[in-house]
Amino acid sequence: MTRTLRVEWPEARPFQRRGGRPIRLLAVSDETDPTLEHARNRERLGALDGVIGAGDLDPDWLAFLGDAFHAPLVYVLGNHDRPRAEAYRHLPAALDGRVEKRFPLPILGLSWAHEGARRNDRGAWWQLLRVGPRMLLRPRPVLVTSHVPPRGAGDGPDRYHHGEDAYRWLLGRLQPPLWLHGHTTVASVPDWRCQVGPTTLANVTGSVLVEVVPPG
User: Fold this and answer.
1) Separation between Cα atoms, residue 113 and residue 210, nearest integer Å
2) Which residues contact 131 (CB under 8 A, 6 or more apart)?
3) Rounded to whole angstroms, how far apart are CA atoms 192 and 64?
4) Which of 79, 125, 184, 200 has the most beta carbons within 10 angstroms of its beta carbon?
C-alpha cells in the first residue's frame, strides 16, 4: 500500500510555472510494492512529476515504475546494489554526491558510501567531501535522497541499521525541507516519518506518494 506525505517547500520559484500546482513524486525503496503492479492502482495515484529510488530495489522494478508513470527517474544505490551495479546500465546513472536538476526540485543523491556491504566510520565523511563546499554552502533549498538515514533521525535500533553520523552533520548544515531514505525496516521504528528542525525525514521503504506544495 502506498503511503502519502505532504510537505511544504519554503521557496515559491519551483511552482511559478506550474500555476501553484503541487509537485508529485513517488518515492520507493527496499521492498517492491505489489499494489503498483496493477494499472488501476497506479491510475488512482494520478500523474507524477518523477520517481525517486532510495536504494536496494531491482533495476527492472525502477525501470517499470518510470515507464508506467511516464515520469523521469532518479535513484541512489543501496548496500545490496553495489555487487550488481552492472544491472543498472539500462537506467540513468545513479546519484552519488551530485544534484539532479531535471526534476522540478533539485535533488541531492547519496548512494551507499562504503565498499561492499560492510560499513566503516570514514566512508560517508569521504562522500561528503566529494559533495564539495559549494553544495554545503548552497543558498537554495534542496531535496536530499539517501539510502541510509542520518544518525538518530529515522534510523533503526540495531547497529547495522544505525544512521550515518556524517549525514546527521549534513542535516544540520543544509537543513533541507525534505530528506527521503530507506534501509530501515518500517516495523522497527515508532513512525516512518520524523521531524528535525525544518526538515521532514521519511522512510520510503515500499512506496510513498510525496506531494510538495508551495509556501503558504
Assistant:
1) 25
2) 97, 108, 170
3) 25
4) 184
Q: Which three cell numbers stand for residue 65?
A: 515504475
Contact 23, 211 (CB under 8 A): yes
| Separation CA 34–CA 62 (nearest Å) | 13
Q: Which of 142, 124, 127, 149 is nearest to 202 (CA)?
A: 149
pLDDT per residue over 105-148, tens digit each? Answer: 999 999 988 876 667 778 899 899 888 777 777 678 999 999 99
Amino acid at 87: A
Q: Whose CA is closest to 166, among 124, 135, 133, 129?
A: 124
Confidence (pTM): 0.93
E strands within 20-138?
A: 23-29, 50-53, 73-75, 98-100, 107-110
Query: How many angstroms separate the CA atoms of 47 and 65, rounded?
Result: 12
Contact 149, 201 (CB under 8 A): yes
Determine contact, residues 142/176, Cβ cutoff 8 Å. Answer: yes
CA-to-CA dists, residue 191 to 23, 88, 143, 158, angstroms: 24, 31, 20, 16
How long, in residues, is the chain? 216
Are 207 and 27 in contact by the 8 Å Cβ rule? The answer is: yes
